[in-house]
């Protein structure tokens, strides 16, 4: 057992009047005020029957009350089950039952989704969490070995599983990130990723572990992000490729202040074309690799290597280890270990041994830098050759007019499988794609089919559903690009 002071209480003691959370309108909440509100919320929840180790589900977009509820539950020692607001009622029903949640708290905009769940468990709106009840014996210490959150994986195949995160997983994730990216007294992290995903939630943890101000946005708006950088002193942002693309479209080189030092890019391999565009706009992008099971990032490109190792996810963080099940320079499965790696899933298999098999494929260059090739299950085997979709996607992303690109394997009588490209965008020409393939890819990697799609289908975690694309091909629902 490793015990330490409660993170929020400690920051309230050390710097009570410092802004914990700031908002676009200029309002803010200090660490002292955030602690007070969170403890009052703990009292309200206690009076509703919440006790230590109870499983309490939260269904909410980015809402200020979310923070007070999460910290309030931590003061009670309850476990937080994070639900994705993009899920259907049926999907939510599966998850609350699987997680054995006794209470569901929801932000009012989600009221329609929860009506059908009322027969399964107690359901309460944020708007009904009122009062100033206090509870004696709140937990002022944190046991790093205790489970704090349960977060469901995407479930692109089969039913999703609840990843168990201990306080220690969150602690070491935050500390490892700081050792990699550095931390200054003036740092301010912009949070606009969904708080129910690990990337957004990890920013909340950095807030109370570092004692760092965060600027809280309800969603991503590129114009507001730019204002935050130029006018409100934001120095760091976490985001995914589509956010970076939208930001690049509205900024000029001179818009990026010298104080802004990091766009932490996750959510899957980024194309070199995108990274080069960011570099041209003076946006310092640090590609990172991680997943829900690793409590966000586990490898990140160090700032000093960002230019010369463009496209790499860097090296394992200070407290983590990483290796590839293949010879150096060859693609194999990425294996990871470290105190931020979850021990397993609720009511399901636990990790055996030190290393966790990620299911992602990648390789290490001669200096040990990680390059992510894509998911193991997405690998295309064509005539005995292994083809990784990300490699083709990187090449085609630079074609004029292409807005989105995905590559998946489709059945072929001769080769077993062949790559098919799925593109969206205006005025995309087939000839341009073929020309780019001839110059950038071995012949066996050229897409045998190029399909036009209005937009790529995605799941609730915004991951492209490649299986769905293949099904659309099999059903004859897509036309080839002319």
Q: Which structural class do you get from the secondary structure elements?
A: alpha/beta
Helicity, as a percent range: 25-40%
| Silhouette | globular
Please report the number of helical segments. Answer: 13
In the CATH hierarchy, what is the class of the largest domain?
Answer: Alpha Beta
Proportion in β-strands: 25-35%
The fourth-level CATH homologous superfamily of the largest domain is ANL, N-terminal domain
Strand order of the largest sheet: 3-2-12-11-13-14-15-16-17
Q: Over the alpha carbons, how many angstroms does the gyration radius reach?
A: 23 Å
Q: Which whole number gives the mean pLDDT?
A: 91
Question: How far is the N terminus from the C terminus?
Answer: 63 Å
In CATH, the architecture of the largest domain is 3-Layer(aba) Sandwich
- The tally of beta strands, per DSSP, is 27
> Biggest sheet, in brief?
9 strands, mixed
> Any low-confidence stretches, pLDDT <50, length ≥5?
none
**What is the fold named in CATH at topology level of the largest domain?**
Rossmann fold
Query: How many discrete structural domains?
Result: 3
Note down, in words, how this protein is organized.
29% of the residues lie in helices and 27% in strands. With 482 residues, it is an alpha/beta fold. The longest helix has 17 residues, at 31-47. The mean pLDDT is 91. GO terms for molecular function: ATP binding; o-succinylbenzoate-CoA ligase activity. Residues 391-463 form the AMP-binding enzyme C-terminal domain. Residues 14-346 form the AMP-dependent synthetase/ligase domain. Pathway: Quinol/quinone metabolism; 1,4-dihydroxy-2-naphthoate biosynthesis; 1,4-dihydroxy-2-naphthoate from chorismate: step 5/7; Quinol/quinone metabolism; menaquinone biosynthesis.
């Amino acid at each position: 057992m490793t015990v330490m002071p409660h993170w929020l209480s400690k920051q309230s003691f050390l710097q009570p009047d410092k802004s914990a959370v700031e908002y676009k309108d200029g309002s803010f909440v200090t660490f002292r005020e955030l602690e007070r509100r969170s403890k009052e919320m703990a009292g309200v929840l206690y009076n509703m029957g919440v006790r230590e180790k109870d499983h309490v589900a939260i269904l909410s977009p980015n809402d200020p009350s979310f923070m007070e509820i999460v910290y309030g539950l931590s003061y009670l020692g309850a476990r937080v089950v994070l639900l994705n607001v993009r899920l259907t009622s049926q999907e939510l029903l599966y998850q609350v039952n699987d997680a054995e949640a006794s209470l569901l708290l929801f932000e009012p905009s989600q009221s329609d989704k929860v009506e059908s769940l009322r027969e399964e468990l107690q359901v309460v709106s944020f708007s009904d969490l009122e009062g100033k009840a206090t509870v004696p014996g709140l937990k002022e210490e944190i046991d790093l070995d205790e489970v704090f959150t349960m977060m469901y994986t995407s479930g692109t195949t089969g039913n999703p599983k609840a990843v168990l995160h201990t306080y220690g997983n969150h602690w070491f994730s935050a500390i490892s990130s700081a050792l990699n990216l550095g931390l200054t007294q003036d740092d301010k992290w912009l949070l606009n990723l969904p708080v129910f995903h690990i990337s957004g939630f990890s920013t909340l943890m950095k807030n109370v572990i570092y004692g760092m101000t965060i600027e809280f946005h309800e969603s991503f708006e590129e114009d507001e992000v730019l204002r935050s950088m130029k006018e409100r002193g934001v120095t760091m942002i976490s985001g995914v490729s589509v956010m970076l693309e939208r930001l690049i479209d509205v900024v000029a080189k001179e818009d990026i202040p010298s104080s802004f030092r990091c766009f932490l890019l996750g959510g899957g391999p980024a194309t070199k074309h995108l990274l080069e565009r960011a570099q041209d706009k003076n946006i310092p992008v640090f590609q990172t690799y991680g997943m829900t099971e690793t409590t966000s990032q586990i490898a990140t490109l160090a700032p000093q290597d960002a230019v010369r190792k463009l496209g790499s996810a860097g090296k394992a963080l200070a407290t983590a280890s990483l290796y590839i099940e293949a010879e150096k320079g060859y693609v194999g499965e990425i294996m990871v270990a470290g105190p931020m790696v979850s021990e397993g899933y609720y009511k399901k298999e636990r990790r055996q041994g030190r290393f966790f098999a990620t299911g992602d494929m990648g390789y290490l260059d001669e200096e040990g830098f990680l390059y992510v090739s894509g998911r193991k299950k997405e690998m295309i085997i064509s005539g005995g050759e292994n083809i990784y979709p990300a490699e083709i996607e990187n090449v085609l992303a630079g074609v004029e007019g292409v807005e989105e690109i995905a590559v998946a394997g489709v059945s072929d009588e001769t080769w077993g499988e062949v790559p098919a490209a799925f593109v969206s965008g205006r005025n995309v020409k087939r000839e341009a794609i073929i020309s780019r393939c001839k110059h950038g890819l071995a012949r066996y990697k050229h897409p045998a089919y190029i399909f036009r799609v209005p937009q790529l289908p995605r799941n609730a975690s915004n991951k492209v559903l490649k299986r769905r694309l293949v099904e659309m091909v099999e059903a004859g629902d897509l036309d080839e690009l002319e």
